[in-house]
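Dear Dr. H.,

I hope your travels went smoothly. While you were away I took the liberty of generating a structure for the chain from your last submission, since the lab meeting agenda had it listed for discussion. I wanted you to have the full record in hand beforehand rather than looking at slides cold. The sequence, exactly as received, is reproduced here:
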Amino acid sequence: MKWRKGPRPWSIWAFALVSTSFAVLRTGLYFTDLAGVQEMFEHMLPGFEWNRDWVIVASSAWLTIDLIPVVLVFAFASRFARWFILGMTTLTILLGIHDLSQMDWVLEAVIVASLGMIASMALVGLLFLPASNRWFANSWEVAPETFA
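The corresponding predicted structure, in token form, is as follows:
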């Protein structure tokens, strides 16, 4: 995998900036409420003995996992990363819709969850705009200096 040279289209910049901002913001929010996040992780993975240190480690790992596909798209124009992001976002939205159907209808929670899903779809949509398609299509071109 090689660093992709040349200017990035605005849609790739927007995707990278917004995705990175969301990931860093979520991690910051997790660090401000470690007890609440510990409860969330205990609900997600009940067999594990969660404590404050493990919550910090898991939150940091989650940040890293969020940023890997962003780097693959922005730095390397990885087509696989684009489709992987689409697949994971689709799965997350389907699970979110299922969660909404199972929860008590608290208006604020429904609004926040719905806005999050819409934002996720819009963010992934940036990866499939014409300028982005050209960015990914040119990622397999061989540099002329390779044969010099």
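Two observations you may find useful: The mean pLDDT is 88. The helical segments are 10-32, 34-44, 52-76, 79-102, 107-125, 130-137.

With kind regards,
E. W.
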